[in-house]
Design goal:
The protein is built from six helices and five strands. The chain is an alpha/beta fold. The protein has a single domain, classed as 3-Layer(aba) Sandwich (Rossmann fold). It starts with a strand and ends in a 14-residue tail after the last helix.
């Protein structure tokens, strides 16, 4: 099942992320949305669960608040740390070619490329949606519409890949065991195909 992965920094946007999760689960169903608080069992290996969830996802919602970079007292950003889960999630989403949708909350702005780790620099160029407290319903409706577009495209791509696989398997099967003359004649009659014209390939579906 394709899932929507909701990524956020707890100290930065926990409240907004929770409200967004509520709306998305209401629309798509709880099994279609992954968010760490609700989706990770106590005692589970957190990095392994995140990796598995991302491998099953086709859309990645990055909730960006005013301190998404994770500014620390020494002036460095948590996002640059190898052990920062938010950075790991975004990095994995890029590596797996998952559609990433930044969501700006609480008046946040998109981070500058120079403030991001080099491998996450492309994040700064993504088109973001804004979810405002005063227009929460309409803004979330825009997010849902964007996710529906991603899900439709994902499903079309998945079905096309499956069709190609089945056609390839069918062709290989027919090459290994070519149909008899009687079978060809029967198929032409059923399809109304003139003798000696074209070639019919049937898949197993």
């Amino acid at each position: 099942m394709a899932r929507i992965f909701v990524s956020y920094r707890r100290a930065d946007s926990e409240g907004y992320a929770g409200r967004i999760w509520d709306r998305l689960t209401s629309k798509f169903g709880p099994d279609s949305i992954f968010m760490d608080v609700d989706s990770v069992d106590p005692g589970a290996n957190f990095p392994s669960v995140l990796s598995q969830a991302l491998s099953e996802s086709c859309a990645f919602v990055a909730v960006v608040g005013t301190n998404w970079l994770g500014l620390q007292p020494d002036g460095t950003f948590r996002l640059h740390g190898a052990d920062d889960f938010v950075g790991q999630e975004v990095r994995t989403a890029f590596e797996k070619n998952i559609s990433v949708i930044p969501i700006l909350v609480g008046g946040a702005k998109m981070p500058r490329a120079e403030d991001l780790p080099k491998e996450l620099g492309a994040f700064a160029n993504l088109n973001a949606l804004e979810i405002r407290h005063t227009k929460f319903d309409s803004d979330v409706a825009d997010l849902i519409q964007a996710l529906e577009t991603v899900l439709r495209q994902y499903e079309r791509t998945r079905l096309q890949a499956e069709l190609t696989r089945l056609q390839s398997a069918s062709t290989q099967e027919h090459q290994a065991q070519p149909p008899s003359l009687e079978t060809k004649k029967f198929l032409r009659q059923r399809l109304g195909e003139p003798k000696g014209v074209g070639r019919v390939i049937f898949g197993p579906w």
